[in-house]
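Throughout our pipeline, every protein is held as a single compact record rather than as scattered files. This encoding replaces a full spatial description with a residue-level series of whole-number codes. The remainder of this section carries one protein's record, kept here as part of the documentation.
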Amino acid sequence: MIHIQHLNKSYKTAAGSIPVLQDINLHISKGDIFGIIGFSGAGKSTLIRCLNRLEEPDSGTIRIAGKVITELEEKELRQARQKIGMIFQQFNLLDAKTVYQNVAFPLEVAGYRKAFIREQVRAMLDLVQLSDKEDVYPFQLSGGQKQRVGIARALVNQPDLLLSDEATSALDPQTTYSILELLKEINRQLKLTIVLITHELDVLQHVCNNMAVLEKGRIVETGSVDKFFLYPQSDTAKRFVHIIDHYREKRNVWEGAGAGI
């Protein structure tokens, strides 16, 4: 589904060029829920934005569903992006438009007929369980509902690939769980490949099958999520697992102390 070969990306600053991604090589299978994890500044968001060329790589190739994304001209790239949905941490909804209008927007821009747009929007709102919110504005929604609108909008073009850039970071734990369950159901129903950027181990453990670890712009570990937790290899993986083990130990102490009160 996704083949990344020798991908490099740097940013130019007054002090010179700063490498952000260095020789990224990665394969993600069709239908997988694939997690990419790393600490802040590791290059996670840059990597996921290179997949639809919201960020332009300096070199290397990205092939998605047989198309070499890095070689496409502007018109072809616009068409390819219609098959790559993306959801964001801050929702990116249009405040002046209703839920229906937000979800319909990509189809309207693409010039689809109103009847088709209506059918697609209502199907997506039904999928994300917001059929009763068509005429509501974003300010009237909870964070979880806003993210569901964002997911519906990302799916309305019937994409082959869904990119999630820290999509649950702004949500409370209960809402995060409901969004992750929704993503699993979307993956099951639509056979959709999902690439999920996160720094939250609970997210990785709950929803992903396979994963990669980014460290200072390089992939230092790949494999199944189970392998990551049982046999971490890289320094970043070991630090993540140590942090979550430490947190769980403290939580057990707090719960034990509470039980003794």
